[in-house]
Each structure stands twice: as structure tokens, then as C-alpha cells.
Amino acid sequence: MNSYEDLSLALNESDEYDIAEKSPDSRYIRYNQVLDRGGGGGETHVVYKGLDIVDGTEVSWNKLGVDDSLQAEERLQRLKHLLKAPLKHQNVIKYFSSWVDHETKTINTISELFTSGSLRQFRKKHKGVDMVAIKNWARQILRGLCYLHSHNAPIIHGNLTCENIFVNGNTGEVKIGNLGLGLAKTILEEQHNPVVDVYSFGLCMLELVTCDQNPKPDGLGKVKDMKTKKFIERCLCLVPEYSISISTRLSAAQLLQDPFLEETIFDFYERSTKFRLTGESRDENSIDFTLTWHTADLCGRARLEKIEFVFYVDADTTTKVTEEMVQELGLPKEDATTIGDLMDNWIIKLVPACKKPSSFVKFSSVHAGPTSVC
To answer: Signal sequence: where (predicted)?
Structure first.
């Protein structure tokens, strides 16, 4: 009996009834809690919550039902080929183990768990997501694809959908998952090329923007913003200036450099603070800042406060700006440090050559008026 089995047997008998299954080496246990379901073409894909009893961490236990054991073995070999070199990237799900259960004709894989579920589930739940967040997700997905496609033998996902991309709702981090699992038989039989994933990424973008699940290219008519529409068209290769031939389609790396995804306007809002700061370059020497936060009036009603100011890189310092700001606005002195950190992040990002912002800036306060609390 191996050490994993010893640990497994050490579990309380009452807990045993909650355990639906164990991995062949007994290191991983599966619960009956279903996290997600999918499938199609005669296949079923169910994701359960599991536990690594050695590390004491929760994991995702994926079960993919296939037509026959031979096909399952072929898929497993392809999956093992994909994962033979550990994939280490912040936007790709980590895989720990995989095997075929010939009796039930299922492929089982163990991977890291993202408690917020798939990007499809998350987007369906949160319909008011801003385009800034969608662009942030897009950049992360493309970075993951760049990593997969950059291997000597490019790793092709082959079935990239919002259902196979997972999100951490607390941090906004997304990761590509289900590598080799969701591939339909027809896909497996085709010659793989990275542009397959790029096209699928375009459909993912269309879904994130329109909230339509499993969208088709003709759904582009629902995209009202022309810049967003043009970007998705470039992903799908549907614009006249781009040929539909594989050789001329844009790569994930090229799309990542697309002006549409440039981080010129972004949000350094930290969830641990009450402040939200946004900034935009006015020119090489100045940045337009907008700082917002919530207060309460005497009646307890929420009030949105907002100030707008210009920061001159060669003449101002965040220290003096924030010190004057908290004094005039009656904010706690410790807020100066928080606001200053947010400003520094913006300045370094928008003015890369600037390392230490430097003296004084006047700002104007703009009250947005009372807002209701939901």
C-alpha cells in the first residue's frame, strides 16, 4: 500500500460516504459536487470538485465520456503529449494527473480549481461588465495562446470557447483550460494550425461583448461599437484587407499588439481601497487624472465624490499632490499614501521613461451628487 492510500484510509469513515471516487494512485478524491456540465456530439463533459489529499488543496476533476475505449486511449495519448512538458504560464490552467477509465469509457484529468467557474458562466452572471474588463480578459487569453503556440511543436487548443476559459472573480485573472479534452472527433482528424485558436478567440470576444453563447460570425451585427467590431473582424479574418487563407491570418502575438488592446486607459483601482483612479495621457508631459470614491451624507445616503486634475510629469510630485488633496478634502492622512501609489502606477505605465514623478498641482473638485445604494 502506497503513502497516498495510507493517507486516504486515515480519513474519517463518515467522510468516506462523501467521496464518490478516488484516482488510481489514491492521491485525488472526487466529490459529487458538480461544478459544470457540457458536451455535444454524443459526448459528455462533467467537472466535479475534488481534493488533493497530499497538498490539502481543492482541485477540478474533469470527466469526459467518449464513444469507445480505443478513442479514449488515443485522446489520452494526445493529452499526455500536450502535457509531457509542464505548462507554466499565468494564463494556462495547471494539470496534475490524467488517466482513462476503460470500464466507464471516460478520460479523467485533475487540474487546478478556479472557484468562479468558466468565463461563460461568469459573463452570464455579470451582465454589466465594462469593456475595460473584457479587454483585460482578451489580453490574458492572447498571452496564454502566445505561450502555447510558441512551443517548437505549437500546442493547439482546438476547441477554445468561453466554456474552456476560467476566471478568478476576485482578481480578474483568466486561464485557458481543458487542453485536449473538448476536441471533437472531426477536429482531431484535421491538421492543426494556430489560426484555429485565433478564429475561436474571435468568437470568444463576440460572446463576451454580446453575451450570446456559441455565437456565429453573422452575430457581429449586434456589436454597435465600430472599434470593437473591427477588432473581432480581424480575429475572424472577415475584413477585405485580410485574406481568408491560413498563411495570412493574424497570429495571437500580432493581435496582442493591436491598438484596440493597448493599455493607454486602464484602471488601477485596488479592491482593498475605497478609491478608483483612472488616467489618460494628454501629451508626453501631462496626464489627466480622475479620482472617485464614495461617502455618506448626514442622512446616510451614498454620495459619489469625484475630482479631476492634471499632473505635469516634469513639475509635479505625487507626494505633494496627495498631501494637499487629503488636506483640502478632509480625508485621513493615510489616504495620501494609497492615492499616491495609484498615481505612481499610472505614471510609470503611461510614461515609461519616468521613474520618480516629481512638485505641485492644483486640482478641482467635482461632486457627482447623491447616488442610491443597491
So the answer is: none
